[in-house]
Amino acid sequence: MSTSTLVPYDVTEAELVEKAKLKKHFGRFDILFFLVCTIVGVDTIGAVASYGAEAFTWLIVLSLVFFIPSALLFAELGTAFPEEGGPYVWTRLAFGRLAGAVNNFLYWVTNPVWIGGTLAISCICAVQVFFNNGNPLPTVVWYIVALVFIWTSIVAAITSFAVGKWLPTAGAYARFLLLGLFTISVVIYATKHGWHGAGSYAPTAGGFVALVGVLLFNFVGFELPNSAGEEMTNPQRDVPFGIARSTVASVVLYAVPVLGILLVLPTSAITNFSGFVSAIQQVFTVYGGHVGANGAATLSGAGLVLGDGCALLFIICLITSGATWIMGSDRALAVSCYDGAGPRTLGVINARFGTPVRVNVFSGVVATIVVILAQQITSGNAAKYFDAVLGVTISTTLISYLLIYPALWKLRRSHPDTPRPFKMPAYRPLTVVLMVLVALATVQLIAPGLGYHWFGDDFRPDGWGAGERLTFLWTELLPVLCFVVIGVFFWWRGKRTREQAARLGAEEM
What we know:
The chain has 19 helices and two strands. The protein has one domain: Up-down Bundle (Amino acid/polyamine transporter I). It is mainly α. It is globular. A two-stranded antiparallel sheet has the order 1-2. The longest helix has 38 residues, at 301-338.
């Protein structure tokens, strides 16, 4: 029996049925714009800048020792094994379905948590600052904005790739326009008011401990387009093209605005929650408006118009970040489910759209639950909400890479004859570096400052008191443990699908 699989492994009947619904719409520049939206997340720019001038230094250092090696690794995996489901397929081929199921659930669940968490609260922050005079939104309006944001992202992910691929393209151009205009405005502002000065750029151990988590979170995502691997027109040619160009674009799009914030705002005024939005508002006073004695910026005239326009671009960037990650991770979850590593009911590709609509809706429901629970638990404390959810999101994301990275080693041994249009140089030492950095980042996200000054003033997230160290630890650790258990449960639910695969294999022998 012929199948659509590109690499040899036991194929389920469900896979044959679902892959027949896939359509090839994903070209070279689609992959490039998809990656720009995936990697360049404007919600964490303020979080990085809040650590002062050395944040810029560590951004550049980790670009060299983490970002570039990661790009090389996924250029190999993405061209050698361009299966639908990308990161799930690689870990499943390397370590089996159980490991693939647990790891893929961690990889997937990050995204609805992120959309219902930091992305939604960043959107609300922009609405408050630019459209509500900096005042908190009434509770009902708060929920309306959050839910509209979440379900706009989900609907965008549901649409056919023939249509949906234009969303990342729009998001990439929104980033170019927003960050380009911000950079020009920073130069004008500095020419008029002088450079603020950002302190010492010398890297420190404390700075590394504080920044490694959020910077690594910014620098992952090269594998995401391969979740739609069999929807690409030519992955062997287009994946390296997209990865190489998005690497350069992403470093520039992160580094320039971070540096701009550091040079314009005093460090005390930069927060995780609203740092980038506040910087936009302040520098745009050069077009109309003023900065008060208390440091609060008020826009008027052209400054107000441009500020509101950039607020809309900022929100578009947030929506497209969430939508692109959902497009990729939901496909990976659907693949795992029709491969026998999850409930078969979720492993369905919609015949009309060619997308995993059931998983998309499931993601929207999870994101909605997250936004409601987090708001209730933190009693509306936005900064506390932002940091707690950001920590869970980042740690869950990074943990999944602890199996995705070493899959390269295992697949080099288990599939030595698979053609590799691109091979990662020095893959052994570079993969070790990647895994060590991810492990360190994960520990610091769950227990900030551990080994240096656990939950000290320089590492404690906004909104958390010194006596809440263990509360924060369990806030971060328990969800991760629960996600692992759910991943095992998903694998158990895939038992019937696996049994069908075994029977299919026996019939072909």
